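During the reporting period the student researcher (J.K.) took over the structure-prediction task from the postdoctoral fellow and processed the backlog of single-chain submissions. One of the processed entries is reproduced below for the supervisory committee.
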Amino acid sequence: MRRRPNHIWVRGDLARDRVAALRTLETPPPLAPVVNGHRRLRGPYTIGGALLRAIVPAALERSPGLVADHDIEIRAVAPSLRPLVPARRQTIEARLPEDERILVPAPRRTLRIANGIAELVRDHLAGPRTLLADNLHEADPADRELLGVLARRVPDLTLALGSAEPAWEGMRPVEARPLDGPPDDYLASDCTSDDPRAYRAYLSLTAEERARRHDLRAAELGAGAESAESALGAVPYHLEHGGDPDAATRALWAAVDHCVAEGFLHAVVELGSRGLRLCEPGSEPWWRFVHRTATALAGLGRREQAQELYDQARRVSVDPVVHAAAAYGTAMLDARERDQARRDLPRARAWINEAIAISTLLPDRRERAFKLGFDQNGRALVELREGRLDEALGLVESALDLARCDLPPDAHPQHRMVLHANRAQLLARLGRRREALADFDAAIGLDPAFPDHYLDRGNLLLEMGRTEAALADYETAMRVSPPLPEAYYNRAELRLAAGDLDGARADLGHVLDLDPGWLDAYVNRAGILEMLGEHEAARRDVEAGLVLDPGNAHLHGVLGQLETAAGRYAEAGLAFDAALAADAGLASAWANRATLRFATGDAPGAVEDLTRAIELGEDAALYFNRATALDALGRRVEALLDLRRALALAPGDPDVRAALERHEKES
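J.K. obtained the following structure tokens:
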């Protein structure tokens, strides 16, 4: 068995001490010199970009197909490599003007990217290597997430990370020895130095001299070979501390725009907040930063901070477009809130109605058609949350009519795509599956490289019994996206329904490789492992799942089955009791507790539990088992009726037929 690498945390207060210690470690050969992971250097993937710049050129020579398979991830993490790695998979967003790009990737996109990079590194390495990086405590969350995935998924890679704070549990700590010597040059190090003497020297300069040096450093970095990455970190930082606030604003906006498109939401919040400090409140650039920053905050679940930005926009602006957009954004804070206890739908309705009222009055026909349709689509979500599907459908259809009648045919394809997909979802819920399928087809036709709609169409096709077409959609989603756990999970459910336990198990294993926090994958795989008789493996999945959700009914139900199989009947009873306390509608728990009760001599209890299970949904096996328990109690007439009902539900079952024939002969 391959030995897992011993990841190392080098602790020290100063970067130069940590870097010196990193350089002297006895580890497998390093992939590159020590990387300064400070996010201020090259933005959200400062470490990830350095890693890719170290391996992609060699990977292109040795296995260009491997690089092509990860084009999305490479181009997102290391923009300077884009000339070497053409876009093989690209959504329509890449060719749209800024005012037509309406989608902001969810926070989980960075996990997809991290998994793609991990698979690239894993498949490229020909033996043990080390990634050396410092300033982990100053790295962007996207970089820290990537390092965590690399540690978990790349067995040949040792991570040696310098940080003034603990990295993560399980790393071997190494103390950095303090070094003597002159202070760093704060500016030459891109203002990432943590040497207090360097910072004091920097502060001793006049404001004019600091500005001059910042401008010179920004010019040097902007002309460098890696300017695509430094433009996300060091260049904007130097410009905003130099003498040209307009240049700083432009640089920060370019960085924010890139990070929004890629879904680097933490970076959007930090860069956008810096941009806001440079702009005149109420100005057009200020509003653009407000809008993007608030959207990112909402995506990260930081709704109070997003709310404050929208409130600030309302306080300083009289622009109707700003007020409509702020009202829409405020409404969505409630409409998209997952926690129902915090969701206030009447408040969301009030704000979205205000957005619609303003957008209705916009004088430009095209602008009105887009913004009003956008707001109506937002109100459709409120209606959906309140259970009014027909009203939600009418609003989406009205938005589509506006786009069809008042927008140029080729304008706003992303907006049209969203509307078709949303109408498809509503039609499917209303049972109008063929119409829903046509809308999913339209959405995919507008952007064939957008993966999420393949998942949704695949789910609809599966409901319609078209399993081969559903499978094709799930596998297309896998091809057009970085590693997508949702697609593997959906394919696992398809395989499970078809009786392919081994295939479903493999897919669920891959889901958990990609996302160890996927609770339902533990639930389903534990059930499969129990059916396959792999009880210890099933128990490990149950225990892992219960760490995530201690009250999960399905997991307690599987645990009860495992305890029953092991002969630990008291423990099994407690597990089934916990399952039913958590979800009294879980038919499998009633049925399995009935099996336990019958096995321990409690036939009346078994009949009671099976009766509850049958009330939740008829099944031949339930009637057969209840007939067995009734027969043990001498209630033969009732047992005979149950066997007849079981045969009606499963006329081809030989066990049911044989039991019925035996009972009828004995009667």
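The committee noted the following: The longest helix spans residues 365-385.
J.K. will present the remaining backlog at the next meeting.
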